[in-house]
Amino acid sequence: MSWFRPPPPHTQLRPWVPDAIFIPISRAVERVGVFFYNRVLNKTEVGLFDKRWNKNVHGPYCHWRYYGKLDTKLMDVKLGDIPAWIARRDKSPGAFYNEFMRNVWRVHNLYYSGPVYNNTVKVIFRFIFAYSFLNWLVKSHRYLDFQKTMYHW
Questions:
Q1: Residue 9: its pLDDT value, please?
Q2: Which of 1, 79, 89, 141 suits 61 as a labelling partner, its CA being 20 to 30 A distant?
């Protein structure tokens, strides 16, 4: 490569071929993403607050709280009223997803971001567990070639 002269200092070399290929492709992908957001996601309720939440009534929004009309708890329902109680439930996929996400946020609030961090002992043991697990993960490749055999000779 001695026949190429080095470029002058502070010269920016930008290859034009990748730009000619990747810029139109990235712009097309961006336009598809904008189209998908405007035509599909924007017409759904993904990422929005619950419609039944009212800031003046409920205060700050809690992801783990159900803002619908309260119903009788399952443990308080009489045996004869169980079919009617089940019929009142919303059985759509969206309702199952919302219930799942409420429980995820509830667990997150209880164990990862709420008052748990005031308990120093739990936090210390979590860090010890995370450190131990990461060390095991890093060093586990040493034991992959270990083979348990029937005869040890």
A1: 82
A2: 89
